[in-house]
Specification:
The structure holds two protein chains of two kinds.
Chain A: H1 2-22, H2 25-28, H3 31-54, E1 55-56, E2 59-60, H4 64-77, H5 82-100
Antiparallel strand pairs in A: 1-2
Chain B: H1 2-6, H2 9-20, H3 25-36, H4 38-50, H5 57-61, H6 66-73, H7 78-110, H8 121-139, H9 172-180, H10 183-188, H11 193-200, H12 202-216, H13 225-231, H14 233-247
The chains are: A mainly alpha, B mainly alpha.
Protein name (chain B): AzlC family ABC transporter permease
Pfam families (chain B): AzlC (PF03591)
Subcellular location (chain B): Cell membrane
């Protein structure tokens, strides 16, 4: 089943890219379609951030991951480079987890 | 393997995150696909710019991502655009997949990712990708935007392939989005201030609504499905803002 998901994603992501190169411009140039395409990834990313930070199976928890994400947000606002942002999140999460057991 | 064929950083992270969290594989795939939709719109603009022969299109399609689009669209003519697209595509594709392979080798030596706090890396990556998207729109309306609203920093632009961060890619998706949305702010300039404020904050509202929706349905549906529910925030917010635009004086299209 995991491989099914990987194959579906690979094929789908490729198809979507090819679609953009091939479809007549008029279909995708409509303002409403363009606006939706800009907003959908935003909704998906925001939801993924929340879920991967606060969801644990089917329960909601606030744990070390929240501290890591908060630290990443601070690093992001300070205009830190991409890798530093991720490293800060990882280090803070590991540290909080080690301290709280 | 995944990296060779999907080659869209955000979708890869989403799929791995959902599968690692024990999510339904098909729901995970759907979530990852939604993140890849924007590539279709890059492709649309690139196909006009590059003027590719039909035979080359299936090959070129795999390289249509944030960075290649940004570089190609920034070039003054078609020859340079093609060159930029190809060079960026080759170097990013190679760099991204080599480093992914090294990471896969290293991962087996690390053991449990949670013990190292690596489970927080996913959300951090997404946050770094999301924030420039929220800022991109306000940076595209310099005339209507107060100076307090800074444009998206190049440093914050999401490098989907951090290891291959070429200086040429530094304009990033933020710059690309600014051009993509250059038209809508011009048409909204005549609307009431309230509506314009909503339009500028539409992205933030969508993100907030998506978070609330996703977390609210976690206890009730299988893992992986909340993301799909949350994505409905995008069309919902679009409908609401259109309704508001129509009601405001002089706001009709």
């Amino acid at each position: 089943m995991v491989w099914v998901a990987i194959v579906v994603t690979a094929a789908g992501c490729y198809a979507v890219k090819l679609l953009g190169l091939s479809v007549p411009a008029a279909v995708l140039e409509r303002p409403l379609v363009r606006r939706l395409a800009a907003l959908v990834p935003i909704a998906a990313l925001a939801a993924l951030i929340a879920l991967q930070t606060f969801a644990d199976g089917r329960t909601l928890v606030v744990d070390a991951r929240a501290a890591g994400l908060a630290a990443a947000a601070v690093a992001l606002l300070l205009r830190a480079p991409f890798l530093v942002i991720v490293a800060v999140a990882v280090v803070v999460t590991a540290a909080v987890r080690a301290l709280t057991g | 393997m995944l990296s060779l064929f999907v080659f869209t950083g955000a979708s890869q992270f989403a799929l791995v995150g959902a599968l690692g969290g024990g999510g339904n594989p098909l729901a995970a795939a759907a979530g990852a696909l939604l993140l890849g939709v924007r590539n279709a719109f890059y492709g649309l603009r690139l196909s006009q710019l590059l003027g590719l022969p039909v035979a080359v299109r299936p090959l070129a399609a795999q390289w249509v991502i944030d960075e290649t689009s940004a570089v190609a669209l920034a070039q003054p003519d078609r020859r340079l655009a093609r060159l930029g697209f190809t060079v960026t595509g080759v170097s990013l594709y190679a760099g991204w997949n080599v480093t992914t392979f090294l990471g896969a080798l290293g991962a087996s030596a690390l053991g449990d990712p949670a013990a190292w706090g690596l489970d927080a890396a996913g959300p951090a990556v997404f946050l770094a990708l999301l924030l420039p998207m929220l800022r991109a729109r306000s940076s595209s309306t310099p005339a209507a935007t107060p100076p307090a609203d800074p444009p998206a920093a190049p440093a914050a632009a999401p490098p989907a392939a951090p290891a291959a961060a070429s200086p040429a890619a530094s304009p990033g998706p933020a710059g690309d989005k600014a051009r993509t949305h250059a038209a809508p702010p011009a048409t909204s300039a005549g609307r009431a201030p309230l509506v314009r404020a909503i339009f500028r904050r539409e992205e933030a509202a969508v993100a907030a609504l998506a978070v609330v929706l996703a977390l609210a349905c976690v206890p009730f549906v299988p893992a992986g499905v909340p993301v799909l529910v949350a994505v409905l925030a995008a069309p919902a917010m679009l409908a609401v803002s259109r309704l508001l635009a129509r009601r405001s004086p002089g706001g009709g299209r």
